[in-house]
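Page 37, continued from 36.
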């Protein structure tokens, strides 16, 4: 049932191009517009939404962090992202025009369920993004957008994460489409790019051997740090989470701009630092900033592992290891940039002799608060 793979996690990483394509299937029409009829929240209601609040845990929370960038950019609706376990305890401001989005692979995570119940009690509409048909979270929500990743068996989330991202982009783009924001042309262009993304994820998967080799060479380390900016920041958090849960290593993700406010003190000779570099096209300011961050940490002895777009030559002089990903619009980059981090964590865990599919102390769905 592992389809020839040693672990479910490897199988699920390999299934990502199909999972991503399946989540898009039937949701983009021939004219390149989105059709989300299944949503059960009317376009009229969506036009009234004046705030989006995303609640989720763990990896799903990281998908939510990325969604915020997309939603605010494409729709200009303010968006908050909150850990589901914190949400209802801080008396959040919710109203009928607040759209709450609950993201959950299993659909059974108690923290997320309690957060959405609280939101509905306050009169907000809840949209679930979920991978498990008929599970509790979609049943208790006003609407659901299923991710079609197929069953995810490994405890560490991989294909569910990528499909959660796709679903979040669909929600963001759909909100943009029904509200007719000034980004109309960009929205159409992004929908076209999204339709190509499965092939790009496949391309990344085909070039992972050097990443596996690198991971094996780091098996005796204690710490790996991850840096990113913009949507690369949640990608860094996700890379660190995967490494913690699978390799049991101290791994931490930072916003690269925060380095000088503290974390740079952690940099010492030889410490591996993975840096997620945004596309040099478009927002070049963002790119320039991160290139100087790489220079800063390398000058202090870090061993730099750089994830950068094909053709980005500016990073080459400062990268001890360079991992290439296909060119994508910045907001979509997490779909390709996360894949090497999954492979990295999986291989490192294996090299350390850990049980990849069943990490210690963890359960696939967390049904207690
Ligand atoms: C990490 C992981 C967890 C889950 C989290 C939420 O790899 O799998 O962090 O993402 O427990 O689970 P769901 O999405 O089922 O609500």
């Amino acid at each position: 049932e592992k389809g020839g793979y040693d672990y479910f996690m490897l199988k699920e990483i390999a299934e990502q191009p199909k999972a991503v394509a399946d989540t898009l299937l039937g949701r983009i029409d021939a004219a390149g517009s989105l059709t989300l009829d299944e949503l059960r929240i009317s376009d009229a209601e969506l036009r009234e939404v004046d705030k989006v609040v995303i609640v989720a845990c763990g990896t799903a929370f990281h998908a939510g962090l990325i969604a915020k960038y997309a939603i605010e950019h494409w729709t200009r609706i303010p968006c908050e992202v909150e850990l589901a376990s914190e949400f209802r305890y801080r008396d959040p401001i919710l109203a009928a025009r607040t759209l709450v989005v609950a993201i959950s692979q299993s659909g059974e995570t108690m923290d997320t369920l309690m957060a959405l119940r609280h939101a509905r009690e306050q009169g907000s509409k809840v949209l679930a993004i979920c991978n498990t048909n008929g599970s509790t979270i979609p049943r208790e929500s006003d609407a659901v957008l299923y991710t079609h990743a197929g069953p995810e068996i490994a405890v560490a989330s991989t294909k569910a994460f990528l499909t959660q991202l796709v679903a979040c982009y669909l929600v963001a783009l759909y909100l943009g489409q029904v509200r007719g924001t000034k980004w109309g042309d960009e929205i159409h262009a992004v929908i076209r790019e999204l339709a190509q993304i499965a092939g790009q994820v496949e391309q990344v998967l085909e070039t992972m051997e050097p990443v596996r080799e690198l991971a094996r060479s780091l098996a005796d380390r204690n710490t790996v740090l991850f840096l990113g900016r913009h949507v690369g920041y949640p990608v860094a958090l996700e890379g660190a989470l995967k490494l913690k849960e699978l390799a049991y290593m101290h791994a931490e993700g930072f916003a690269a701009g925060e380095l000088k406010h503290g974390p740079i003190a952690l940099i010492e000779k030889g410490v591996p630092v993975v840096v997620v570099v945004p596309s040099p096209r478009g927002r070049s300011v963002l790119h320039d900033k991160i290139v100087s961050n790489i220079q800063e940490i390398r000058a202090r002895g870090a061993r730099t592992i750089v994830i950068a777009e094909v053709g980005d030559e500016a990073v080459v002089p400062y990268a001890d290891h360079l991992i290439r990903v296909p060119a994508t619009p910045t907001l979509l980059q997490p779909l390709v940039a996360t894949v090497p981090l999954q492979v990295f964590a999986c291989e490192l865990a294996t090299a350390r002799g850990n049980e990849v599919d069943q990490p210690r102390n963890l359960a696939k769905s967390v049904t207690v608060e």
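The chain is about 45% helix and 15% strand. Flag for discussion at group meeting. The first strand starts at residue 51 and ends at 56.
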